[in-house]
Amino acid sequence: MTELQACLEDGQARAIIDVREYAEYAAGRIPGARLIPLGAIERRAEEIDRSFPVYVVCRTGRRSGEAQRKLIALGFTDVRNVAGGFLSWRDAGFPIERDERAPWSLERQVRFVAGLLALIGALLAWFVHPGFVWLPALLGAGLVFAAVTDSCAMGMMLAKLPWNRTYDEKARPACDSPNAQ
């Protein structure tokens, strides 16, 4: 992390790739970082300049570690994981950039949708039919599963919504085959 900060201060050439989702990236990022979400890293690797050190960053360092392994497997020779991720960078007081009109973080969106579904299920169970009690129960089970497996299906679905995607991702064809019409 301090190595990257020194590179930024010295103006040294490097590539900074942020592998988080758009909402996270828009809310705060390392200056000069380019967004290539982890799910697209292999498909978009040709966009990364191999002639410079490549720094990969995510929120905490877990996804960027995975991106580092994928890029090395693709033949990149100098890929560095930013230890501690964006949270450590921000907490160290290093400069950050953010979009003025960034969407809510995915975590906040998940809390909102989960709370809304639980509330709707409880109200439907109270006023319409007691069988609707299963909606908040299933939601609770899903949240427990997400915590145990450290994954979030709801977050992955929300990340695909239009306000959580960059313009380039919206315009990109569904099939990335060069022969796609």
Describe this structure in words.
This protein folds into 2 domains: 2-91, Oxidized Rhodanese, domain 1 (3-Layer(aba) Sandwich); 106-171, no CATH class. Helix content is 46%, strand content 7%. It is of the alpha/beta class and 181 residues long. It has helices at residues 2-10, 22-27, 62-73, 85-91, 106-127, 134-149, 153-159, 167-171; strands at residues 15-18, 34-35, 54-57, 79-81. Helix 5 packs antiparallel against helix 6 (134-149) and helix 5 packs across helix 7 (153-159). It has 8 helices and 4 strands; from the N terminus they run H-E-H-E-E-H-E-H-H-H-H-H. A 4-stranded parallel beta sheet has the order 2-1-3-4, with helices on one face.
In terms of topology, how is this protein built?
Blueprint: H1 2-10, E1 15-18, H2 22-27, E2 34-35, E3 54-57, H3 62-73, E4 79-81, H4 85-91, H5 106-127, H6 134-149, H7 153-159, H8 167-171
Parallel strand pairs: 1-2, 1-3, 3-4
